[in-house]
Amino acid sequence: xxxxxEAIMKSWVSGTQNSDFTIYNLPFGIFKNKRLGPRAGIAIGxxxxxxxxxxxxxxxxxxxLPERIFLEGSLNRFIRLGKPTTKKVRERVQQLLSEENPDxxxxxxxxxxxxxxKDVEMLMPVEVGDYTDxxxxxxxxxxxxxxxxxxxxxxLPNWKHLPVGYHGRASSIIPSGQPIYRPKGQFKDPEKxxxxxxxxxxxxxxxxxxxxxxxxxxxxxxISTEDAEDYIFGFVLFNDWSARDIQAWEYVPLGxxxxxxxxxxxxxxxxxxxxxxxxxxxxxxxxxxxxxxxKCQKDHGFDINLEVFLQPEKGNxxxxxxxxxxxxxxxxxxxxxxxxxxxxxxxxxxxxxSGTISGPTKExxxxxxxxxxxxxxxxxxxxxxxxxxxxxxxxxxMKGYGEKxxxxxxxxxxxxxxxxxxxx
Amino acid sequence: xxxxxEAIMKSWVSGTQNSDFTIYNLPFGIFKNKRLGPRAGIAIGxxxxxxxxxxxxxxxxxxxLPERIFLEGSLNRFIRLGKPTTKKVRERVQQLLSEENPDxxxxxxxxxxxxxxKDVEMLMPVEVGDYTDxxxxxxxxxxxxxxxxxxxxxxLPNWKHLPVGYHGRASSIIPSGQPIYRPKGQFKDPEKxxxxxxxxxxxxxxxxxxxxxxxxxxxxxxISTEDAEDYIFGFVLFNDWSARDIQAWEYVPLGxxxxxxxxxxxxxxxxxxxxxxxxxxxxxxxxxxxxxxxKCQKDHGFDINLEVFLQPEKGNxxxxxxxxxxxxxxxxxxxxxxxxxxxxxxxxxxxxxSGTISGPTKExxxxxxxxxxxxxxxxxxxxxxxxxxxxxxxxxxMKGYGEKxxxxxxxxxxxxxxxxxxxx
Lengths: 424, 424
What we know:
The first copy, chain A, is an alpha+beta fold. Helices cover 16% and strands 27% of the residues of chain A.
């Protein structure tokens, strides 16, 4: 698809032009509703194309697809068919949804295939095998290093030589809409001798994006930066919930653990790498020459506008952060090349999150920790409210979209309400 | 089963008395051979009981078992049936294998049910969802802290207040017998300004045990130390392969990543918690009073003798470490209570490794790092060889067993050969 050079495509589905889910996007997800069990779909405007219904009615005649492939309850097996197949499915749906194409528009099964999006429940799109969280925004790492260590040496010596990352908890990755409970744990006041215990006092979000791998490797093999994108199926928005006080007490020397593992929330529609092609952008210039396995021949950054909204239980939505995925110092090809340089095998459905995406100015900061500078400068919200960290009843929403030359491709949202700690 | 108070049980299977796999043990695993596809079995002496064949021939008449439950290729779905069921299956097999019981011994299908163990390939017993590695041996943490930080303050302030742990990589956990490739990566000589790149120069093993969970929890829920064992199905030996130079350069501030994720090896037979009951033992006295959620009402330690052998490519096996699981400062109930205190959900098939199990004397040290004190005191091997770390062609074998009052329950072994880095 050479979207940029051709006239703007339109769909016969109404109201898609300014939607996140234009005919240029066509992300994959898993949904269910009162009538239908879990199944794969493609989003278009305020509708979902039920891929299983399309398949049943013979709309994929030239694509080799196993029976019930869209009824698996996750996309893993579909993605494993490989890009030649998944691309063909998306392109076929694009044809069928095009303004001039009558095949589905005028077909009697149209009503069965096109589902109203607001009536469904979105589920996890993939079963996540392993989940890695990188730390690839220089601004974020600098902010954190300044606050917790030394403003004059905010970045640690390894930071510009490799994309620092750590293993996260896969079981607690949940889709948008599912509330989370405030985590309990240990934290220690520096003034006190012993740790305290209770619900976290410093609950935070982290604005991230994550890519999902679409191909396995064998142990011992590495992926080059040149080949990396062949292994990437698509992207979601990622909210890496964090409990700053728990994290601060536990993380030396083995890294974040319970300060993170209680929940991570994602947007439920996987936007394919193909759909993001128009938004490809250069990454920041790397100030230190990297080792050969981290060198890249082309741009692997993407110009994706990101926003975070905070809504108190009784109050309006406040836009509290505007950032962009293009600020990432380390790109996706470098992240995947680094992840596998030691021979670590990857699997279909793994998730690789970017780390908090902060930018150069204060409005770009992707966490409460940075926005309020450790709570020292509370955010002023509508209605005279203020916030140092996230409170019970608050809802955090993240949105993201690319827009260029009349083409819009968005991620929808990841929206999560925070409930009080269980058993308190 | 009240093994301790009764006369010693014997099996009609020959040569089981001094085996790791006595009639008191009966661990579960997944095997295949030239004739049979992947299936569940129970080990006894040098045989395996093919559970699927037993099931097919009606040997579990009073136990509610789904069809093909033993042909799933992993034990996850079987374990998920719950302890009342998995215990009944093990007890029924124990009856059938007892000296005095003719039901299987004299049955015409005996030849089909009893498989020769040396002819099979052992596979991963479970699909591992998440894998946590704890750091629960005080001796190990003290040794590492002394070497890398400060001998006078070897343990960090949090260490005695919580079982420190981190998330590990699940995809690269492999069964005994599968060789590993030496990992490549970045490491930095403190004398140099820039990092170097190549195959690790400091490949190490870590002697650990891991427990496997047998029951899910919901997000937001925590498991008490009192209930923790209800969630534990069984144990394996665990070799947490480590590349010390890669780890040293990467691990600040987010913890170990590529220095660990290239491989972890396990013994393929899951020894059930029930089988370890005779070896229950007190843990070391905790010097600092722990928070209420970490307090225990009973012993959760186990007296399991552990051994590590190192065999060069052309040379004999050398016993290089003798340790014991009972040295663990933090026990399994505390580990699971801590893992879930923040509401992190656990799943059937998760693996929770102990961290390196070192003891008070030098022969108890569970890694080359400690045994050679960072390479400064090379190990002397048979035939005039010496080792600072693990070399290409070396085979590392770990064994473990409990023995008490004539009852022996062993883990078999986890044996792994190290191959040169791929592509070099």
